[in-house]
TrEMBL record:
PANTHER family: HYDROGEN PEROXIDE-INDUCIBLE GENES ACTIVATOR, TRANSCRIPTIONAL DUAL REGULATOR HCAR-RELATED. The keyword ATP-binding does not apply. The keyword Ribosomal protein does not apply. One of its GO terms (molecular function) is DNA-binding transcription factor activity. InterPro entries: LysR_HTH_N (IPR000847), WH-like_DNA-bd_sf (IPR036388), WH_DNA-bd_sf (IPR036390). It holds the Pfam family HTH_1. Belongs to the LysR transcriptional regulatory family. Residues 1-58 form the HTH lysR-type domain. SUPFAM superfamilies: Winged helix' DNA-binding domain. This is HTH lysR-type domain-containing protein. Keywords: DNA-binding, Transcription, Transcription regulation. GO terms for cellular component: protein-DNA complex.
């Protein structure tokens, strides 16, 4: 059982229609069908009852899908925590350039840093050559 399988099955549960679920997951209908069948086979139960026009969740399938929803939400929270912890600097970053050249490289440099580091606060200070050597 994979998180991807659970996401596919939850999409099918939400839309109760293969076409909309495959569109939501950006996959083909055979891929969704195989994922559902593999998960049902692994669990040894049917999550869904199917007819030619209607799809509905079994009673046990609803309980399993509710648990899967909590599980997927928790894994997303873990991924979010990991993402928020990336690229954080542990110390203050000082960028100094002599005022005669700073207008040229500074905008590009600051913009690149802001795209890379989420929590970068931009405070500009002009300093002379003596100020640079002290830092």
């Amino acid at each position: 059982m994979t998180i991807t399988q659970l996401k596919y099955v939850m999409s099918l549960w939400h839309f109760q229609y293969f076409g909309k679920a495959t569109e939501n997951c950006s996959i083909s209908q055979p891929t969704l069908s195989i994922a559902v069948k593999n998960l049902e086979s692994e669990l040894g139960i049917d999550l869904f009852e199917r007819s030619k026009t209607i799809l509905w969740v079994t009673a046990l399938g609803a309980k399993i899908l509710q648990q899967a929803q909590r599980y997927v939400a928790e894994t997303s929270a873990i991924a979010g925590l990991a993402l928020s912890g990336r690229n954080n600097l542990n110390r203050r970053l000082h960028l100094c350039a002599v005022f005669t050249i700073s207008p040229y490289p500074s905008p590009h440099c600051i913009s690149s840093l802001q795209n890379t580091i989420d929590d970068l606060r931009n405070t500009n200070h002009q300093c002379n050559l003596q100020g640079i050597t002290k830092i």
